[in-house]
Every structure is written in C-alpha cells, then in structure tokens.
Amino acid sequence: MTAVHLGMPGLPTAPRGVGHLRGTESFPDAARHELRNGQLRANLGHATATIRGKRAGVVAEVPDWEQLRAAGKAIKAATMARLDEHLVELERQVTARGGTVHWARDANEANAIVTALVQATGTTEVVKVKSMATQEIGLNEALEAVGLDVFETDLAELIVQLGEDKPSHILVPAIHKNRAEIKEIFARTIPGVDPELTDDPRQLAMAARTHLRERFLRARVAVSGANFAVAETGTLSVVESEGNGRMCLTLPDTLITVMGIEKVVPTWTDLEVFLQLLPRSSTGERMNPYTSTWAGVTPGDGPQEFHLVLLDNGRTAVLADEVGREALHCIRCSACLNVCPVYERTGGHAYGSVYPGPIGAILSPQLTGVEDNASLPYASSLCGACYEVCPVAIDIPSILVHLRAEHVEAQEHPTAEALAFRGLAKAMSHPRLWHLAQRGARLGRLIARGKPTLPNVFPPPISGWTRSRDLPTPPTRTFVQQWTEEHGQ
Ligand code: SF4
C-alpha cells in the first residue's frame, strides 16, 4: 500500500502529459471555435432544455428536497473531514470479502496498476462501464498502448469511441451529436450493421445492442468506475440507465474498479440520501433503472477476482484547500451543466477537461493546479444557477471567485485589469484625482458623437472588454452634481 497523506498543503497535483484534465488551448479560444458550430448549439440547446424540464418536474415532487440537499452536503463534509479513516475502513472491508485494494497516487500509477492486472489475466480485450475516473486518467489510451482492445459499452460512450470523438458532458458524453449524426457514425463503423439503418432511436439502440452483446459474452475482464463505496461493508455501487453496466459487473471473470477517493461514504444510511438525490438531478428520473452493488468476491457468482484502485490524482491537494475542497462533494449528476448558460452555448469540448461546465470550472483547475487551467474559473457569468440546482449544494460561484483570486495572486506581473482597478482605487480615495478623472471621462462624449454607447475604437487590452460589451457614453452631469442640484449640499 502506498501512503497517501491527506489534507496536507503543497501536495502534488495531477501530473502533466497523461489523462484528460488539460486542454490544448484556453477556454476563450476554444469557445470561439465551438460557438461557430450552429449544429452543436442547436443539439445542446434542445438536449439541455429537455433534461432541465424533466429534472425540475421530479424535484418539485419531493416535499423535503431542500432537507435532502442539506443532508447530502452535511454527509459529504463530515466524510471529507475523516476521509483517511473511511478509506482505510473501506480497504479493510473490501479485503475481508476477497477483493484487493490498490492505492494510486496519480494517473500514471493507476494506469500502470490496471494495465498490469489486465495483462496478468492473459486477455487481449476489456469491456468498460462508463467511468469519469478512467477518462480522467486516460486509461483507454494506456491499455491500447500495450495492444489491448478496449470497448466502451455505455451507448453514449460507444458513440464517442466509434466516432473518434471526445465526451462533452458528464452524463451524456455524446450530447453534442444528434440522431442523424449518430446514424452516420454507426453506419460507417459498426461491422455488418443493417444497410437500411435509419436514425430512429430504437433502431440505433438495437444496432448498438447487437454490436455489444457479442463483446459482453466473450469478455474476461471488465473495468468500471464507481458512483459510491460504502466503507462499513466494503460495498461498491454503480447506478446507470441501460443495463450495460450490470452486464460488465457480473459476466467477466475479473472486475477492476477505478474510483476517486472522494466517492467513499461511511454507511448505507448515507448512501440512501445520495440514491435519492442523484437520479432526480441527473436524468430527471425518480429512480435510476439499474443500481448495482457488490462487495468483494462471491464464490461461483459473478467475477471471481475483484480489484479496487483508489485514485488520488490531485484530490488530496484539493482537500487541503478549505474553500475549494467542497468541489470533492460532487456526485457527478451534471445538473449544473444543464442549467449553465455558458455551457449551453459553448458545449463541453471548450473546457478542455473531461469535467466540463461549472463543476469542471472548479474541479479541473484544482486537480491540475490553477496555472494549468487558468482560464476555467472565468468561464462563468456567476449567475448562481449551478448552486441552485446542485443536489449537494456546492457553492460553485464562491469557489470560482476563490480560484480567480488565487490565479490573480499567483501572477508575477499584475494584469491590465488589476492595474486598472488599482488606478481606480487610488482615484476614488483622492477627491482631486477623482474630479480630474471625471473631467477626463467627458472626452468620451466627443468620441460618442451623441450616441448612447461608445464605438469600439479602443486599443488592447480595453478592446478585449469592449468587443462584446457596450460601454455607455459618460453622462453630462456626474452623480455628485445631480445630487447637489436636487438636494443641496
Ligand atoms: S457540482 Fe453539483 S450539480 Fe454539478 S455535477 Fe456535481 S453534484 Fe451535480
């Protein structure tokens, strides 16, 4: 067992060069490309509006929803405060039931552990249950690099894999594709697919089913993530809608689960709260169709070898930040994505990381260190919609502001914005300077030539601000002048 030092400052973040937590360009640059894609915006607008409506309907049915949210938040906070103890208890219980626990400090260690475990079985194929943790560490690429074939079995993940695309949503990775685009991918990539295949959802699902069934039946190794792990009994849990997860968790001889260390909950009573919060917040269902739970190995029933890989990859560094650590409470429901006006327009690829949307904007920079994802905390209007819908009441806007401050403080040289605000602070605290500045601002009236807003004639960096915002023409009278005229001194 590798020692993991929880909650200590200065801990390592997720390493560079492996996994999918960093994009190749900043959020504004990537978003600019994505915004030119009208089809993407139409697909996203339609899909997020549908899920939003379903969620709002089923949440409104629960009279004690706010109390449930508060319970979820409290359980997560209490669990994080003693995470080390819960993880050690989880290891004890999994081991007692015939499983093996591996501790991975980062993506490289986790990939090496899983690769060695798969190779030891002698198989050349792996079936996978949808898992954010394995996407985060780039496990598919690591397995393929040693010649193993990896098959995603979640329908949306399959679409992404066959289309050689990237996921763009936590829950619905192919949300950016419409039915016609999915039909084209299937027709092009699935061997022996019906040449008469149409974009009818049932036909598409049946094509994927036929393609996957053969792989389920011959697979000897499956890799999964986990939604939750109950420390008191060493029980892992996966919740899903399609049943592909159940097939992967029960049919192969060997099951390997890669789980972020924050997914542990102390008891079954705690799990009960999250199993109520998650389906209503994610798919807008009262209960998800498949909830699989397993503990260790049962002779003659299910996989006969079970390995649990506990992944850190920057999580203890997040835990060390008193404000930012709340991001570890996330149960990956994706409700915050579906209500976010920024996500709805740019889509998930613009975030660069496998974690898009508001949760991605606070989680990715913390896992990698803010300097490697510096633009993400700014990818928000701070409207607060994400906080309103989060089932565990994560205060995402406050963490965004906290990370922005961290980024600004880490700058060697002050930014143009910081200099502008310093200048403004100085002027506002010296009346003579302030009056001079007000007189200077009147020049703006000359540039405006009677129009209510100023034309965008400013040099950088001001032009970066005015390109997408109207700068009002300065008024003829200042506030102080108006006040004096109307109320006297
Ligand atoms: S931050 Fe909250 S709303 Fe967003 S995915 Fe996580 S749990 Fe869901």
Automatic annotation (TrEMBL):
Source organism of this protein record: Modestobacter muralis
Region (Disordered) residue spans: 1-21
Keyword flag Repeat: yes
Taxonomy, superkingdom: Bacteria
Keyword match Repeat: yes
Any one Pfam family match given in the protein's UniProt record, by short name: Fer4_8
NCBIfam families linked: LutB/LldF family L-lactate oxidation iron-sulfur protein (TIGR00273)
Protein name: Iron-sulfur cluster-binding protein
Keywords for this protein: 4Fe-4S, Electron transport, Iron, Iron-sulfur, Metal-binding, Repeat, Transport
Domain Lactate utilization protein B C-terminal residues, every copy: 411-486
UniProt domain 4Fe-4S ferredoxin-type: residue ranges: 327-394
Listed GO biological process terms: lactate metabolic process
Record InterPro entries: 4Fe4S_Fe-S-bd (IPR017896), 4Fe4S_Fe_S_CS (IPR017900), FTHF_cligase-like_sf (IPR024185), Helical_ferredxn (IPR009051), LUD_dom (IPR003741), LutB/LldF (IPR004452), LutB_C (IPR024569), NagB/RpiA_transferase-like (IPR037171)
GO molecular function, one term: 4 iron, 4 sulfur cluster binding
Positions in coiled-coil regions: none
Domain LUD, chain residue ranges per copy: 89-308
